[in-house]
Specification:
By secondary structure, the protein is mainly alpha-helical. Helices cover 45% and strands 4% of the residues.
Amino acid sequence: MGTPSDHDRDGARPRKGGRRARVTTTTTTTTTTIEVDADRGVFMISVAAELAEMHPQTLRMYEARGLIEPKRSPKGTRLYSHSDVERLRRIQQMTNELGLNLAGVERVLELEVELEREKRRYAEAAERLERLQRETVEMREQMRAEMQVEIDKLRERNALVPYHGTRTTAIVHVRRVPGAEVPMDAVPVDDDA
């Protein structure tokens, strides 16, 4: 091992044969990932315009037309979210690639909102229908079980007479009893019989 005088200022020390070795220090880099809600305003107008590949004045025009509505900082600065930037890109696509004017873009965006609302309503209705179908099946099974219990009780008491579905005709004679009312559905027959 060398003496302190054998070391130069950068910490290198002589090796055998008079050559010097360099000591390298490595540092560790830490990366922190922060997740931000897609609707949280984080970009100022110049950054949002650059991300959407448009001029800030164009972005202001879209805002004036009501196509985009940025959040505001406590001091009133416009702050655009990731969702806003995606919407701006969509507007650019409709105007540049599809050739729509801003009135057409407004209508398309309105229809997209309406379509999403109808999709939610349909999903809710489908879920409600599925729930009602399950409840119907459960009620049918419950009623079937309750009827079977009642049938079994009647069979045990021999109070249930099997019906075989034969068709018979019966003639019923009703005699009038003085002072008694005759039911309306009863048809009187001659008292001579």
